Fold these 2 entries.
Entry 1:
Amino acid sequence: MRLLLVRHGQSEWNAERRLQGQADIGLSQLGKSQADALRPVIEKVGPCRAISSDLRRASETATRVSTTAAKLTDALREIDVGDWTGRAIADIRTEDEPAYQAWRAGNAAPSGGESWAGFTDRVSQAIEDERDTPCQNLLVVCHGGVIRALLQHFVGLAPAHIIPVAPASLSALRLGNGKPPRLELFNYLADSLDFGAPD
């Protein structure tokens, strides 16, 4: 099975550089265009089925990148950032840069937030549940944190060693076939390069 991991397009809060966590924020106009640009790539690969976070920015992206109707699930929601929800990243960093960096590395959680370990267990179980049904290319439309958590779970890449996942980018993991999980593609964008993707 190949996991086609798509991060949602830019959301309204991504554009404002605000942390979203599980806040249900829709796509910006740019985010819609980004998702539309990725559609020919996804259609060429040909997913056999699709799953998506039930948050609007992901479910809207799923509709735009593929004609394959996605099963929506709360198991693929972004990590809960607790008291940081809706706050500007710059303000959080100014207030407590070490706490922000510890969170980005998966070593701490904001007050009221979800632990990295618990989050990784949640999202990886959602994928493990899908492996029981044969599928060559499973489209998974989700969030940057979800993709980083899956990279840690399947190929051992700790979040501190992974750059932010670009909006409406495609990453791919190959699972099974008698070999260890392998990273096949990371942060592919249909029409540009993005080395400064937002959290």
Note: The two ends are 28 Å apart (CA to CA).
Entry 2:
Amino acid sequence: MLITFAEIDGFKNLSEISFVPDKKYNIIVGANAQGKTNLLEAMWILSGCKSFRGSKEKDYIALDGNRMSARIKILDSVREQKIEFDMSKNANKVITLNGVKQRGSRSAFDVFKCIAFIPDDVDIIKGSPEKRRNFIDMAYSQLNPSSVVHLNKSNIVLNQRNALLKSIMQGRDKPDSLEIWDRQAAAEGAVISYMRNDYVKKINSICGSLYRTISGGSEELELEYRSNVYKQADFDTPCGDEAVKKYFDKLRESADYDIRTGTTHTGVNRDDILIKINGVSARDYGSQGQIKSVALVMKLAQAEIFMKKSKDAPVVFLDDVMGELDENRQRFIFDIIRDMQVFLTTPNESAILPEIKGKILRMKEGRIL
């Protein structure tokens, strides 16, 4: 998969950006706060994903601006397609795919696949369980876009259930009204649990091999899915009526406690992914260097899994991560992503391996010089 053309205007500090990327390496150079990361972010949101920086949509438009637009053309193994994102301060966003207005961002997610490496990736390891769940859910959804439906419905059901719990706690509703939401939560939660377990198994084997290489064979990395509902042995049988019933029964068991506290304590919203180095929690005991290495191999494993499943390689965004790595680790990364189109940002192009040659995009004050 390749980005063959990009045009961005009014996104944060970006102005009148238009360029034809190199098929291999695109090195975006500039001092801090010149728009390098904004350029990656503007292309990233065209994948249908939320900003990798956590930006809210209302912040996409510059403070002194009235509208923003971002357009790319992408070429996959079948054809070239065009994705457009337009938004003004006084109107809703408009997403079009090949000139046809879309009802949401789902269509873009199905079409444009990309993986971003950013400094905040370390939060996947040392951050909250939600960070790890989000990483697994995003990575799996890129392989199987239909899973987004289950994730979205599960979130809706959970919000409705939590609202009802508070209402019951305040005496405005009866506890019996909870069952209908529990059945829906169980149906969606069972699918998501099996989905997460399946992906963690896939990524665990690849991460183990990559981390063994990057640590010189001295350390072992292990990822383990920790379900709030199921034991690991439960996943030996396919996801079916028995799995849904088990999930439903767990919800019913915790219903009284949930009502007293006004929130749901059972289900996929409480899952975690344990990350261990030599059998010890990386989150609790990993050094800064170990945590950075783990985050790196998890993203590389995500790219490798996608490559094995899809005919098209994902586009890779490397946001200011290469300068912190020595030559050996840079070569390790580029060996994994050698068949992918790469966009990388750096304030100092001399920090990049000399053999990494491609198009240089120099940025200043939100423009490509």
Note: The two ends are 26 Å apart (CA to CA).
